[in-house]
Design brief:
The protein is an alpha+beta fold. It is 30% helix and 15% strand.
């Protein structure tokens, strides 16, 4: 625990803290079941700038740690990125996170009058189709991202439905830099989705367990890691479905929170 009960009460005298509510993990894998959070301050933005410029996520983790009542290092990776997104949305309300895109959906445009028929759920083929041409909608769209826009992928609330076998654990925030480094190694790149679930304080520790000379179950461990990765993924869906404000056609866009997204 980051704080004992007395220390927590002292921290919560700061009225900017709020209960974040349900996390994507549903607090599986923790010895606590609630987390309080406050928006970023100037001190944290200095750390985030350092993370963005140097490409070192540990500075981002330190910034997050200063804003929450549990250890940021111990967060599951799914919760970590969810909290990062929460901080981006709630900390700079006058410069919100904006999705900016040009709609490339097709619409029918009359060759002479320029009249538009939108290719939405009300579309009907015109009688004189030869008088029309398919063209790009071309509308420039901007939409503010709110937490309510985001599709959250959550684990089951019931404890007995989320079972992590002995020798395995959720990938944690403290492992992110090690995982990113290992993904650059061709020999490890395809193994990391499984390896990250092996229990270990660091990614190096996880790899030592897997490749130990006396480990006769290495392939079984990879198989289990892949199963856990497929079964217990959580966080938020990075694919955001937005509607063009002209033709109303829905399109998918990627939202990828990183230190750079905290700056306009």
């Amino acid at each position: 625990m980051k704080y004992n009960q007395t220390q927590l009460q002292e921290v919560l005298k700061n009225s900017s803290y709020t209960d974040i509510g349900a996390l994507p993990s549903q607090c599986h894998g923790y010895d606590w079941n609630s987390l309080y959070i406050r928006p970023l301050g100037v001190k944290e933005y200095k750390l985030i700038s350092k993370a963005a410029v140097l490409g070192e996520l540990n500075h981002m983790t330190r910034a997050i740690d200063l804003c929450i009542t549990q250890s940021a290092d111990d967060l599951t990776i799914g919760d970590y990125y969810y909290i990062m997104l929460w901080l981006r949305v709630h900390s700079m309300t006058k410069t919100p996170l904006i999705m900016d895109w040009e709609c490339d959906a097709k619409v029918l445009q009359h060759k002479e009058t320029g009249a538009i028929i939108y290719n939405d759920e009300n579309f009907q083929t015109p009688e004189k189709l030869e008088e029309y041409a398919w063209v790009d909608c071309g509308r420039h769209n901007t939409e503010t991202v709110h937490m309510s826009n985001i599709n959250i992928m959550s684990l089951d609330e019931e404890r007995e439905k989320v079972v992590i076998p002995e020798g395995f654990d959720f990938p944690r925030a403290r492992h992110i830099d090690g995982i990113r480094a290992s993904l650059k190694d061709p020999e490890l790149q395809l193994l990391m989705p499984a390896v990250q679930w092996i229990k270990g304080d660091t990614v190096v520790d996880k790899l030592k367990v897997l490749f130990a000379d006396d480990n006769e179950k290495g392939v079984e461990m990879l198989d289990m890691g892949n199963t856990l990765e497929a079964t217990y993924q959580h966080g938020f869906n990075e694919v955001l479905t937005l509607c063009c404000n002209r033709c109303r056609i829905k399109a998918e866009h990627i939202i990828n929170p990183s230190p750079l997204t905290f700056f306009p």
